[in-house]
């Protein structure tokens, strides 16, 4: 990606992530623009075709526009279908949360007093089995995950955005029961690109001395003009998984190129983490917990035996399809996030 990023029609820098569903379809606006904006040289070339051939080309263009109209309709209906099935999945996720947290007892459970409640470390292990999520979890974050009861994602009905909710039991680290992260994604523009409008974190109510995003460093300080020293404490930031819940500002015209590029890199990484949790981890959490799903990785070496390679690929198609990283068509942002982050839920 260009360090400055592409520019949107307003002249503001844009965030570019992977786009499209891989089928190569274009929106009707894109097709129309391409047809109307055909270069003079290309038009001159088509002018040299016989009249009947030109009629056939015009007919093909009309078919292409009809296909684009159908594709637009498909995208609208697919979104409705996704929302419908998300509501059907919800009761299953609620049952999963009950089992993981220990609120639900299984009928076949043996009456053994093993003092094990639910499935300890369920979400921590699921996250740690995905490299992108594991990378942002620090050692000092790990104890907090013992209190993580459930992770949910709720899609917006009015746009392509979504909200993540992390539910915690009472713990010695913060007073919130639910931490949230929300992404506002506008509908696709005329160019076919979705727009990331805003990223909203929440305020964590850290208990005294428990803020994992900060650390206290003791420093010796020498008195002026004397030999005596004293030890003072300084608070400084430290990396933590819980930085994820901070508000993320959108680039604006006020920033210089370097600042804008840094913000776009931060937004890109943040959105990819959020979307991975929303689209990949939550729907198949138990398989990430057990390690039955592995991330798709490109091999550094080519197999000399093409026949064996082809047969192995055919056998593993089903497994690979579940492990592929999902993509979201967020390409550019047009607004500056100036809202105060919402307070996390304290139920």
From TrEMBL:
An annotated GO BP: nucleosome assembly
GO CC entries: nucleus
Key words, A-Z: Coiled coil
Bias (Acidic residues) ranges: 295-321
Pfam families per the UniProt record, alphabetical: NAP
Residues forming coiled coils: 53-80
UniProt key word Coiled coil: yes
Signal peptide region: none
Biased composition (Basic and acidic residues): 322-331
Gene3D superfamilies the UniProt entry points to: 1.20.5.1500, Nucleosome assembly protein (3.30.1120.90)
InterPro entries for this protein: NAP-like_sf, NAP_family
Stretches for region Disordered: 1-23, 295-347
Family the UniProt entry places it in: Belongs to the nucleosome assembly protein (NAP) family.
Protein name: Nucleosome assembly protein
Naturally occurring in which organism (per UniProt): Albugo candida
């Amino acid at each position: 990606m260009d360090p400055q990023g592409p520019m949107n029609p307003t002249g503001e820098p844009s965030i570019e992530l992977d786009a499209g569903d891989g089928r190569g379809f274009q929106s009707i606006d894109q097709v129309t623009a391409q047809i109307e904006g055909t270069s003079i040289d290309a038009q001159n070339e088509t002018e040299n075709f016989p009249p009947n051939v030109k009629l056939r080309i015009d007919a093909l263009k009309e078919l292409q526009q009809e296909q684009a109209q159908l594709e637009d309709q498909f995208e609208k209906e697919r979104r409705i279908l996704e929302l419908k099935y998300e509501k059907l999945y919800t009761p299953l996720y609620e049952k999963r949360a009950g089992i993981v947290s220990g609120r639900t007892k299984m009928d076949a459970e043996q009456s053994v007093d093993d003092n094990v409640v639910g499935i300890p470390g369920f979400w921590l292990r699921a996250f740690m089995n995905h490299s992108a999520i594991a990378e942002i979890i620090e050692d000092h974050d790990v104890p907090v995950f013992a209190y993580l009861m459930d992770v949910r994602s709720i899609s917006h009905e009015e746009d392509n955005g979504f909200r993540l909710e992390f539910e915690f039991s009472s713990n010695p680290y913060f007073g919130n029961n639910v931490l949230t992260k929300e992404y506002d994604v506008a509908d696709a523009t005329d160019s076919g690109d979705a727009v990331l409008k805003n990223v909203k974190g929440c305020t964590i109510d850290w208990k005294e001395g428990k803020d994992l995003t900060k650390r206290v460093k003791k420093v010796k300080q020498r008195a002026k003009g004397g030999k005596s020293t004293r030890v003072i404490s300084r608070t400084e930031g430290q990396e933590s998984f819980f930085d994820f819940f901070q508000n993320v500002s959108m680039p604006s015209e006020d920033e210089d190129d370097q600042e804008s590029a840094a913000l776009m890199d931060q937004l890109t990484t943040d959105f990819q983490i959020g979307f991975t949790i929303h689209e990949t981890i939550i729907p198949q959490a138990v398989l990430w917990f057990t390690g039955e799903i592995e991330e798709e990785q490109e091999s550094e070496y080519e197999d000399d035996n093409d026949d064996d390679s082809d047969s192995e690929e055919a056998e593993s198609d089903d497994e690979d399809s579940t492990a592929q990283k999902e993509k979201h068509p967020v390409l550019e942002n047009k607004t500056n996030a100036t809202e105060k982050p919402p307070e996390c839920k304290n139920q």
